[in-house]
Recover the amino acids of this structure.
């Protein structure tokens, strides 16, 4: 089970319809994503009930396939031939990399006898083990924590309010059962993992702390690529506390006692395990003094708060409301762009302090956004947007200030202040 609780499948996932349609195609399918994002739950709700299910997160199952490399092939060959392909679902497939070789051999032998679906929460182990990722034979999929379409705000967005990066449901029938609606402070405190959103409010902090200690620590330890475990734990806490900021490799190295190359490899490890992502610096400005170092964000704010050794809750939000809000917007935009499979999320900052919090690049179009905690946005909040749009008149015709105002406000002719629930 890839969710924190064993809650029955009651809620709709945005990617479900796309995944269901693609799984019908005669290829191997690999679904990646961080633990607890609901991969197994989603797949179990879609795959046929009689699918052969192999969960390599279970120690006994994992030991069997590690000690008997041919066990997987023998299980598949034992399925009787039929007109329709047998579905074979392997959960946490990265734990036994040679399964990928077996899948390729079986698939190449008979493309119609089996439909292989592999699920994983780490690309690191597969890459470092030289695992066969089935080039030319597979579809790659990714699942992320909940987006706003799956967990709407208690405040409905006005019909005329248009998101700068909309991601509507593919059909009205696929969105009948949204996750429980949360206000902004709950999102900043507890994040968007399905099992956290559906858990009792009093259990959420403990569940997130368990995720940080059990998964982030034990699963990363299992990767067997971290030599100094104490230094890595210090790195993990610092990386979480600095989440959303421009990466300062030198400071992190000094405070953890690690070398610069090791710090960079640790950040890459978090990306490979889908725990975080980088936001590159925008390089298309005519200015000469642009910063080029990327920003780093944890994939989920609840996990970030727990990993930073902060109690996930409203007190944490009150102490860091502005930075957490900015991260929440960035994470939401990043998830939507990943599902769209088109566009890039960037930021712009100059050495003298001028900045644009996020720049969405969609082909030739640029969409600059400033993120403000205020409920009363003013023209002053749009000054960096104004400069950016003046420097990119053809590519950036419109800018946005995302804030907590109760309704959209036109700040200037081409700059709109948008409530967070209209994002």
């Amino acid at each position: 089970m890839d969710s924190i609780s064993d809650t029955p499948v009651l809620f709709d996932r945005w990617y479900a319809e796309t995944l269901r349609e693609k799984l019908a195609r005669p290829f191997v399918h690999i679904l990646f994503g961080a633990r607890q994002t609901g991969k197994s739950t989603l797949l179990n709700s879609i795959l046929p009930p009689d699918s052969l299910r192999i969960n390599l997160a279970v120690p006994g199952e994992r030991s069997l396939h590690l000690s008997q490399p041919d066990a997987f092939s023998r299980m598949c060959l034992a399925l009787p031939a039929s007109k329709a392909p047998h579905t074979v679902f392997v959960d946490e497939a990265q734990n036994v990399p040679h399964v990928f070789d077996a899948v390729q051999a079986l698939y190449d032998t008979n493309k119609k006898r089996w439909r292989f679906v592999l699920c994983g929460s780490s690309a690191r182990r597969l890459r470092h083990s030289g695992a066969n990722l089935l080039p030319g034979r597979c579809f790659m999929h990714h699942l992320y924590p909940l987006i706003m379409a799956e967990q709407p705000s208690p405040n409905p967005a006005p019909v005329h309010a248009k998101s700068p990066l909309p991601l509507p449901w593919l059909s009205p029938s696929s969105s009948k059962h949204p996750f429980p609606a949360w206000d902004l402070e709950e999102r900043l405190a507890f994040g968007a993992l399905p099992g956290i959103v559906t858990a009792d409010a009093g259990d959420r902090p403990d569940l997130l702390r368990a995720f940080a200690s059990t998964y982030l620590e034990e699963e990363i330890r299992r990767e067997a690529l971290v030599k100094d475990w104490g230094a890595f734990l210090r790195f993990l806490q610092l990386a979480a506390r600095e989440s959303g900021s421009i990466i300062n490799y030198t400071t992190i190295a000094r405070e953890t006692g690690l070398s610069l190359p090791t710090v960079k490899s640790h950040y890459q490890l978090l990306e490979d395990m889908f725990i975080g992502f980088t936001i590159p610096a925008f390089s298309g400005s005519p200015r000469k003094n642009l910063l080029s170092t990327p920003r780093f964000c944890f994939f989920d704010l609840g996990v970030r708060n727990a990993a930073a050794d902060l109690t996930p809750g409203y007190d944490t939000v009150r102490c860091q409301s502005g930075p957490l809000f900015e991260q929440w917007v960035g994470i939401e935009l990043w998830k939507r762009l990943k599902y769209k499979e088109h566009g890039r999320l960037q930021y712009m900052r100059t050495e003298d302090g001028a900045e644009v919090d996020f720049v969405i690049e969609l082909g030739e179009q640029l969409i600059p956004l400033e993120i403000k905690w205020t409920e009363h946005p003013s023209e002053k909040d749009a000054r960096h947007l104004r400069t950016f749009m003046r420097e990119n008149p053809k590519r950036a015709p419109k800018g946005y200030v995302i804030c907590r105002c109760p309704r959209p406000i036109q700040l200037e002719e081409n700059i709109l202040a948008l409530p967070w629930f209209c994002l």
Remarks:
- The CA atoms of residues 371 and 402 lie 5 Å apart.
